[in-house]
Design brief:
single chain; alpha/beta; Rossmann fold; 2 domains; 5-stranded parallel sheet; binds nicotinamide-adenine-dinucleotide; D-isomer_2_OHA_DH_cat_dom; NAD binding; Dhydh_Halo; D-2-hydroxyacid dehydrogenase (NADP+)
Length: 306
């Protein structure tokens, strides 16, 4: 099989590193910067480019779990299969969210900012708190959501979840459906967004949902920027309707330099890196290897989206 590795994967890891890891699957080449994608059966990519539709591909693998940038209908019309990288980010994103929650509760982000000014600044007596005993609502209980829920449960937090089918999930005390989202978030000290961006989840959290949240609550978004109405979030943060937010994803990325979010004391901004880990390429290699096997055997693919 001829596998192309699109140069855009370098946003996450060096393309040549992945080529070495999957050298056993067939002929594997990194598509050079100045050349179009051609002469390959499969393409492993971060970016989507319209030219992919005319490249005579059988299969495209997205190195991200989120595939909202791909045109599903056009791919299906051309008979190009699309797979994503869900299933591999539960540990990395779970630990990142654990870090955000710990930072807010133990005020670590405040001390780190103070350190830049050589300022010795203890918190007010009632500012710091422990995660044990706090409540967290996780919206979306797939790979990411379960990675968050299991860690929160271990910390002694009360975990509520939102999923389309309200059946029980390990580490989650109570499960709501999306129609009861405002009820699900109303008592939570932390609300964590771990859903894919779809027509149903675009602006899932807007003025109404933010109003329903506690004024001492923190919103954590590791899903996609457009899942939150960012203007409504800014209003809530500026008016004291929310205590703070940890945001890894934004409506516009990179977050524009003039965004007020950069300067808010209780907002932690991270540059879409919640899943970053040095093992990333190894996990992608395992997925690609498995699907090469399946493609050659004429079987359905793992993580098939289209
Ligand atoms: P996943 O497919 O394992 O889980 C997504 C879950 O959300 C599924 O269980 C699905 O049923 C559920 N869901 C879909 N629509 C819903 C709705 N309206 N209400 C409640 N639940 C709903 O995917 P994942 O690996 O957990 O990733 C989820 C998303 O997170 C990705 O699509 C991607 O956009 C984003 N992501 C971000 C990063 C990052 O670096 N910040 C990393 C990985 C994934």
């Amino acid at each position: 099989m001829d596998v192309g590795i699109h140069r855009s994967v370098r946003q996450i890891f060096p393309p040549g590193h992945l080529r070495e890891l999957i050298a056993d699957v067939g002929s594997v080449a990194v598509v050079p910067d100045d050349r179009p994608v051609e002469d390959c059966d499969a393409l492993v990519t971060f970016a989507y480019e319209p030219a992919f539709l005319d490249a005579d591909l059988d299969w495209i693998h997205s190195v991200q779990a989120g595939v909202d940038r791909f045109p599903f209908e056009d791919l299906s019309d051309r008979g190009i299969r699309l797979t994503n990288s869900t299933g591999i980010h539960g540990d990395a994103v779970g630990e990142t969210v654990f870090g955000y929650m710990t930072s807010f509760a133990r005020r670590l982000h405040v001390y780190r900012s103070n350190q830049e000014r050589r300022e010795w600044g203890p918190p007010a007596w009632d500012e710091a708190f422990t995660l044990a005993g706090q409540s967290v609502t996780v919206v979306g209980l797939g790979t990411l959501g379960r990675g968050v829920a299991s860690r929160a449960d271990c910390l002694g937090m009360h975990v509520t979840g939102v999923r389309r089918t309200p059946t029980p999930v390990d580490h989650v005390e109570r499960v709501y459906t999306p129609t009861d989202l405002t009820e699900a978030v109303a008592d939570a000290r932390f609300v964590v967004l771990t859903v894919p961006l779809t027509e149903e989840t675009r602006k899932l959290v807007g003025e109404f949902e933010l109003d329903a949240m506690r004024s001492d609550a923190y919103l954590i978004n590791v899903a996609r920027g457009a899942v939150v109405d960012q203007a409504a979030l800014l209003d809530a943060l500026e008016s004291g309707g929310l205590a703070g937010a940890a945001l890894d994803v934004f409506e516009d990325e990179p977050l524009p330099a003039d965004s007020p979010l950069w300067e808010m004391d209780d907002v932690v901004v991270t540059p879409h890196v919640a899943a970053a880990t040095r093992d990333y390429a190894d996990r992608i290699a395992a997925l690609v290897r498995e699907n090469c096997r399946r493609l050659e055997a004429g079987r359905s693919l793992a993580n098939e989206v289209v």
